[in-house]
Fold:
Amino acid sequence: MSPGDPDVLLVDEPDRAGRTTASLVASLAGRLAVLPGVSGADVVGALAAGVAAVGREAAETAEGRRLREALARGRPATNATLLWQRLGIDRWLATMPASPVLHQLRNDAALLLVDDLGETLDLPPLLPDRTGGDAVGPGPVDPLDLVLGLWALARETEALVEALAAASGEPAPRVVPGAGRAAPVDGVVLR
Amino acid sequence: MTEPPHGASDALGEILRLQQDFQARMVDETLRYLRRVQGMFEPHAPGTVLRPDAPAALAATAAPGGRASVRLDVENRQRVHTVLAATLTPLVGEDGTTWFADADVRPAFRLLAPAEQARVTLRLPVPADVPEGLYRGLVMLRGLHQGGVPLEVTVAVAS
Structure:
């Protein structure tokens, strides 16, 4: 489209480090650095709570709301609630801070398209900005939000990978010519 | 039917139950507090904020059984690629009618390069049974939950 006056601008968060190659590398490196210090259960719990947060946001849209209400009417809701309560998943996840999985996915994908990654990695590492007061505290996690979050995240992941491939140029051709049939060899031994 | 038992042993059992409940809650609250503190020191994931640049809401008019259409021009002012994925909230009429519009959003998903602009078109088939009136909602960009762009759809029979 031709440049004009946009209705909406997508900008950096105020009072925060903007989305640059250096800050995205720092965020990814920071996540990797804390991994050895946390248990697997904490990681799984924070990711699950993060996916549920994506589901809660998806439920605000018309499409997400219809899907959630359909799930809520049937057996998935009843059985999920039963599993949640009987296996203590509700108590466990209620103590977990939600990991910002969608932003992390988008930031990591954006790193695959930057043109100054090599130079940035050669520089002294930048300390990642800390979440601080923006941290989403632990709270109750509804099983249907987790289900809806999986749906939303799966769609996002699929679209993102396709967009990354499209950004890399022309798609690979559907038919690739072969090297040609091998010339017949005449000989008794090889027959 | 037997009477519920009374006595010192029942009181002791009740105290034990209360104590166990108290301890379980204390463990939960302690864990919640510790994880909240832990979360504050985790690396921040730099995000994107939607900043409306046009003062007016998006508006469209359509007849029941017809089709409404709106356009949204978006520009990425960040220094790296960002995702553009527009969605629509349910539309609520002045009489409280909620319309879960089956919007056709194009493009449904787009990676925007720095300084790149894109136009998103939302087409909303208006069901024949939607009562006439003004419906309000938001065009949201997925993942940017700090609000959206107000949308007003007027459903009116063509004169």
Summary: Chain A has eight helices and one strand. The helical segments of chain A are 21-34, 40-58, 62-73, 75-86, 89-93, 101-111, 117-122, 143-167.
